[in-house]
Every structure is written in structure tokens, then in C-alpha cells.
Amino acid sequence: MSNGEIIAGIIANPSSGKDIRRLVALGLSVSNNDKVNIVRRIFAGMLASGVTTVLYMPDSWGIGARAAQFAPPGLAVRELPMVCLGVASDSEEAAARLRDMNAGSIVTLGGDGTNRVVVRGCGNVPLMPVSTGTNNVFPLMVEGTLAGLAAGAVASGAATSATGAVRRLPVLRVDAGGPSPDMALIDAVSSPLGYVGARAVWKADDIAAIALSRIVPAAIGMASFGSALFPAAAGTESGAYITFDGTSPRRIVAPIAPGSVIEAGIGEARLLTYGDTVLLHDGPCTIALDGEREIEVFDAGGRVTATLDPNGPNVIDLDRAVSEAAERGAFSRSMAI
């Protein structure tokens, strides 16, 4: 914020909600036209809660540019000054630029994978994640206008972390022996599959172990195993570590993808506390981060570990942000008589 300007950002991923789980499961498809309309609704909410300027990520389909044609009067909408390459790192670059331009909040349109990339670049800027992906534990199924209201309230200072309107969520730091650890927002999964391929994991036989950053009461994807095994830990400062054994008599039924419920044999299963490190795999494997296989390990002596870290991204609590802003009069107007 400078010279009275209140800045918020929007990062809309044109590729979210289009992976192979539309073929092997019943994943929801959110068209890019739908995303344009969501962004337009976000504009309306942001303007109503005090935002003066919205900066959006350019993308190969033109989601932000198309929505900007219908920006409401009084809201300055501009494209971020960056080159769009049509790759995942566009979102990371956009987040980093918004951070450096002092954006007060960022609304994302995507799934867990999209937000994972954004978190790499956004630093401490609070996120308002709107679900338009496949596995959506991190982002919310929320109406765009409300997302804009909440993000705008945080950007304008009408809602703050002091009352819980913004809270820091944990992450998993994943070390596969590379120059620096990678990161997962929700789940890190080791698989005996030796190649990245179509990236998604949707069969029990393809899972060796899972690390979860937190227990979510009702979740889809790998996080559903955590909520099935540890329901009492939902909402606590606990992660989980689970290994899979096809011969085990301990069986769990879980929704691994939209419309796809599988049964899996469970080996070890235990809760994690902050700072705990677990072995995901020892030897050749692939590692999926937030639903997509990203890492290939070919070394027979390779070890992959995951550590539960409480210092993840700042995320907006929609209900608390809107409530706090209302209590402070952010939505009250006086009529001149």
C-alpha cells in the first residue's frame, strides 16, 4: 500500500481442473470462461471492501485480460509486468512480483498444485485460495464475490491476523537429496512407479507412503486417509505418516479422487508433530507433491524424507475476515442528506 493505493492480486491458472482425473475419475471441469466470470465477481468483492488496484497474472488463455474488460468503475485493474511462458512457474513469478509490489492479499484460482507453486513466491502475502482444480484441500469451494470481499478486507487492513482473519498453515519440507528441499502444502506421497508420466496417483497399489501436513475433517485425495484414520486429530496441530501394505488386514476406504473411492491396506499409521521427520522412501521411486508426481529418484541409495514445518503460508479465513471487516464498519456507508 502506498499513496493511499490498496493493492490486491489475482492469479488464475488456466490449466487447473484439466488433468487425467477427468478420465480415470469424475473430476470437476471448470472452464476458463467460468474462471473469467469468477474473476469478475472477485473484482466486485474487492472494490466493495476497499481495494483500489488489482494486479492480475497474464496467462496464455487471457483469463485476467478478458475479465478486466468488465472491471467495475472505480477499480483500477492492470496486468502484471511479466512475460507469460505458459508453464507452472508463471504463477510463482506472479506471486513474487505481487509480493515485491506490496500487494495486501492474493486470490488464487486453482487446486492444491496451483497454490503450492504460488506459495513458493508469495512470501508472507496472505492468500485467499478459490477452488478450480481437482484435489482441493487447500483452496475453498467459495463464491468469488465473497473471496473478493475477504481478500479486500485483509488488503485494506479491515481484517487482520490478530483476530484470526489470517492464519499461518503448516507445510511439508521434502528432501530428495537435491540442492534444496521441495515443499508440499497438504501431502507428499512416495510411489514405486519409476516415472512421472501422467503425474496423478489414483491406485492404492501405486502408493508406498504418505506424509500429511494436517488432518482435515472432510477431504478428498490423499488427505482423506488422514481423516479416516485420525478423525479426533482434525483441526489440531498434527500431521500424519501412513504406509501402505496390500497384504495388511487393516483396510481403509477413502475417496482418493472425485467419484473414486478405493480400499487400501494400511501398514504403519501415526500422527506427526511440528519438527518430526519421516522416511517417505528408500531407493528408486517417484514423489507426488499435492497430488502430482514431481520428483523422480533413480539412485538405489536415494532417501526421501518429509519434515512437518509450522511455518507455511499465510491464509485468509473467509468467515473471520468478512465478520471482522463488518464489525469495523468496512461495509457501512453514509448517505448525504
Q: What value does the average pLDDT take?
A: 91
Number of domains: 2
From the 3D coordinates, which CATH architecture of the largest domain would you assign? 3-Layer(aba) Sandwich
Q: What is the 3D shape?
A: globular
Percent of sequence in beta strands: 25-35%
Helical proportion, percent range? 10-25%
End-to-end gap: 32 Å
Whole-angstrom Rg: 20 Å
- Structural class determined from secondary elements: alpha+beta
H/I helix tally: 8
Largest sheet: 7 strands, antiparallel
* Name of the CATH class of the largest domain: Alpha Beta
Low-confidence stretches: none
> What is the topology, as strand order, of the major beta sheet?
12-13-11-10-9-15-16
Q: Let me know the number of strands.
A: 18
What is the CATH topology of the largest domain?
A: Rossmann fold
Taken in chain order, the helices and strands follow as EHHEHEHEHEHEEEEEHEEEEEEEEH
Report on this structure.
This protein has about 325 residues and is α+β, with helices and mostly antiparallel strands. It folds into 2 domains: about 5-170 and about 315-325, 3-Layer(aba) Sandwich (Rossmann fold), CATH 3.40.50; about 170-310, Tumour Suppressor Smad4 (Sandwich), CATH 2.60.200. It has helices at about 20-25, 30-50, 65-70, 90-100, 110-120, 145-155, 225-230, 320-325; strands spanning about 5-10, 55, 75-80, 105-110, 125-130, 165-170, 170-175, 180-185, 185-190, 210, 240-245, 250-255, 260-270, 275-280, 285-290, 290-295, 305-310, 315.
Descriptive tags:
Rossmann fold; alpha+beta; Tumour Suppressor Smad4; 29% strand; 18 strands; 337 residues; five-stranded parallel β-sheet; seven-stranded antiparallel β-sheet
